[in-house]
Structures are given as structure tokens and as C-alpha cells.
Amino acid sequence: MLETVREYAAEQLAASGEEGALRQRHAAFCLDLAERHEIVPLLASDARQFDRLEAERPNLRSALAWFEAIGDVVGLRRLVAAVGFFWWLGGHLHEGLPWLERALAVGEQAAATGEMPNVPIRVAVPYGATISIGGRAFDQAERVLTDALVRAREIDDRLGAATVLVAFGYVANLRGDFAGAEAHLDDVLSLTPSLPDPRQSAALQAAALTNLGDALRFQGRFEQAAAHTAEALGDATMEQQPAGARRGE
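Above: the chain's sequence. Below: its structure in C-alpha cell form.
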């Protein structure tokens, strides 16, 4: 019944001649919502806001489709970047991956139109993590993340660099390169104290510690692993933020 109502409403909107303007306003609303909630998947204290993103998934899909339909590559990539963590940490990998791939494919076009310099970094992190799950495409993931890390350092984006390094550690653990994971995650821990937002700092520190605990555990260094995991849980509890634990699964 609801689908019939939606179809009827869409027909009436198209007949009114105002569809384009209304869909543009709707897409702009969704973009603003997503960018304001970008770090929500990292923060348990914002669990209700995470539920808000879940409830808005149909609207987010509609906005993505609209940006793609009108050729707004900047809007498309901004929205994909803002929703990337939600897809990855929320378990919506099959939905997110095609959009992440499309966003990467139009990167040069977006750069030529004045895209914000941190957008490619924010697209690369969930893409690299997603394509590695299940033992797939490790080399491709590392190439994408390497490019993102270079860009982050070029523009002095410490948040971006820390996020990329967490993803590097995550991918290295999946690949079985535990020494490499340690190196990347130690770099995260050296960066997080300098981040201006304490919530972001605690979230990324917990993620790094949990993945570092995994790397140590896989090498049989159980006491060190337990200490890092306990510290991660302490950070997560302090900030009420469990995504560090989820990231290491």
C-alpha cells in the first residue's frame, strides 16, 4: 500500500513540473544530514543518531541517485564520503561498495570542479576496508589507501591520515601482515593526541588499540594483546564509543 502511495506521489510530482527543484532540495538536505552525522558510526553515545541514519537510508539512496542522474560528481562524492563509515561499520557493504566504486571512478572529474581536498581521503578509507573483507583485493586496497595517505600528509590532514592508518592496520590484519599492522596502528596512536575533536581522537585511538590487540594476539603475544584490548575498551567506555571494537572484528 505504501509503495502504491509513493508511486502516485512521484507521478503527481513529475506532472507538477517541480520535480527537479524539489529533488535538488531533498538531496541537499540529505547531504547536510550525512555530513553532520559522518562520525556517528564511531560513537556509541550517538546511538540514536545512528538509528536516524538507518531510518534515512531510502532518502540517502534517493539523493545519491539524483546526484548521479544530474551529473553532480562533487555532490555525489561528498555524500558517498559522508556515508562511507555508516556503510562499512553498519554492515551495509553490498549497498555501499558500488557507490564507493562510482565515487572513485569520477575522482579526476570532481577534482577539476573544485572538490574539497579531503573528500578523496574520506572515500578511500571505507572503500579500502570494504574490498578487503573476505580476503579480497588486498593489493588494490593498499594502493588506494597509500594514495589517500600521501594526500592527507600533503594537505596536513591529521584526522584523514589517522583514519587511513587505522584502515591500513585493519587491512594488514586481514592479510596476515601483523608486523605491518603494528607499525600502522602505532602511527595512529602517535597522531590521535593532536586531533582537535576529543571524540574523534578517542574513537580512532580505540580502533587502533583494538586492531593492535588483534595483531599481537595473532602472533601469540597474549598478555600485550589483552592490555591493548583493555585500554581500547576503557577509551570506548569513557567516550561511550564501541566502534573501535567493531572495527577489529
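Confidence is low (pLDDT under 50) at residues 240-249.
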